[in-house]
């Protein structure tokens, strides 16, 4: 699922025209239907008027891609926390109303419980061994002071979950820390309940809370995990279309501000000229004694090779003149030398 396109389909595109001309040109295009601006969320060009303009630093922060998916999940967790908070606050209100009519409720419970006995017998439900009935009897036996403390505890718990939901819905950093700490504090209590009695509901609730803690801590890089806050901000900047385009413009302009002329780079071939190109310089300058000595050595070796080749060629030509087969003036009466491709001479008969 493309979370960016899904969000643009529901809430519309987000376009912005920065004041810098170079950056503005990378976000704007001319079409047959008019000018089009690039959406900061999905990256598509949208025909129509731009939604906002101003400095690049004042552009709206638009979540896209993975950050948008994480925001959706955090807001679902926030809704779940709000539902739990509302139920707990409702229970606190019920305890407060019950505290005022404690005696009347206790009397009504004792009078009406026997009326449920025939129905319980048909269903095979033993009222005396029921956990619900035992809990109700415990609450009814509590004093007014105990009920007051229970009401205050429920109010505190409900308020805690409401604040946690608010921080997660607003995608605040403090809300993420608050959620991880608050949820982690209830995990030992849930483990203790599992030790007493294992039920599928308790197991599921424990696994959900552990998954929520690990997901928020790892995805948001809390407590220094996976690079901490610095790595989280860097990941957000890399996903921002506006910041990526601004970095591209700065790189094209040689690291300066967008719209400036590229700075000439110095190369090994010499200093740059006015056009940003480097002048060629000799690899072995005359003022370098090491390069001079190396050049002299190479020249000497080259001269030696050329003299050897010249001597060999002169020797070959001299040998050809002295080795003619007709006993010429340079044969000195000896047998002619056998040149390449000539048959061996015949010996005279004795």
Automatic annotation (TrEMBL):
Stretches with biased composition (Basic and acidic residues): 295-324
Residue segments, region Disordered: 243-350
Biased composition (Pro residues): 337-350
InterPro entries: DUF2127
Transmembrane segments: 73-96, 147-170, 201-218
Keywords, sorted A to Z: Membrane, Transmembrane, Transmembrane helix
Pfam families per record: DUF2127
Name of the featured protein: DUF2127 domain-containing protein
Protein's organism: Planotetraspora kaengkrachanensis
Upper taxonomic lineage: Bacteria, Bacillati, Actinomycetota, Actinomycetes, Streptosporangiales
